[in-house]
Amino acid sequence: MSVTTTMDHFILIVLSMCVAFVPRYLPMRIFASRKIPDWFNEWMKYVPVSLFTALVVKDVFLNTETYTFVGFSNIAKILASLIVIAVSYFSRSMGLAVVVGLIAVALLSVFVPV
Amino acid sequence: MKKSATSLKEVFQIAMPLCLSYVPIGLACGILLHAAGFNFLMTALVSMLVFSGGAQFMIASMLTIQAPLQTILLMLLFLEMRYALLGSSLSQYVRGTSKKFLLIFAASLNDENYAVNYLKFATDKTWTPQNALSVEHFSLLFWTVSNLIGSLVGSFITINLTIVDYALTALFIYMIVMQIKNNLTILIIVISGVIAVITMVWMKSTMGLVVATLLASLIGFALEKILVKKGMKKSFLLKKMKPNAGRKEISKSGD
Prior knowledge:
The complex is a heterodimer of chains A (about 110) and B (about 260).
Chain A: H1 6-30, H2 38-44, H3 47-61, E1 62-63, E2 68-69, H4 75-91, H5 94-111
Antiparallel strand pairs in A: 1-2
Chain B: H1 8-35, H2 40-49, H3 53-64, H4 69-80, H5 82-90, H6 99-107, H7 111-123, H8 129-156, H9 161-179, H10 183-203, H11 207-229, H12 248-253
């Protein structure tokens, strides 16, 4: 099912709200009285890192229209990403990392392919 | 000196750095949602009901590549699953609150207000669940208003979306960097990246992301199990890294 009209958007928002709410609520509710199983914690630890990496790789190294690997041709994004890594590591500030990243990619896109 | 209960004004001061960091990200997110076809009202709704930077950017970029509803929801589920972990670690501090409170509290929990609240709960004995809820609502307010301004900006001027879209990637890179605790994490990042390219090129869809996430997280889980079993806790892969600036940004605003 593709999502195009305002009604579709509304349905998408309501369903997204449920998807966003359940993982926030249920474990907090359940583990307020029970112990968290170790295997669950140990597996969950690697889910965010794996997902975030896959998403970054999709934006930087893939063409999302044809799903082809573009190697190192998005030079602006690759360089900006290195800058974002450095800013994140040294400042630990999310806002600064995003702002510097946006400025870097905007400036770099003037000189090299995005 | 005995510390008394925290006033709403003090809570606001604690939440301030967090709220301000939402402004640029919220603006970018609002612009993208507008470009994805969301009107002003829908942008307000999604910011209040979903209230997750990552999820909203994901919705916007998935809509621009015409992804089907079920794929968007499946990706969101993976994206939001990390809250199971955050939620369960906060559970010890919200014991004894009502069911209604827990519902409201869970609805506006996200990465950044979690970080602030977890640290306050752990270090400040006077920090109450009610204070924590106020932090969530201050951040929710700033987030929603920034998104709405972004939505308006997007309808007045045309902006190169490839560049604005990069805000999401920068956000994820930041979250990756914050999660690096040992060399095994770095190995998993490399493994996940390689698998993601292979699965997405092979499946020609965003389902590749789902498969790559599952495979890479299970490999990480298995590798850690094996290393710990072999008594290699102090090995090169599992040795704890010293965090850089610590949690300076958060503790500066607190205490």
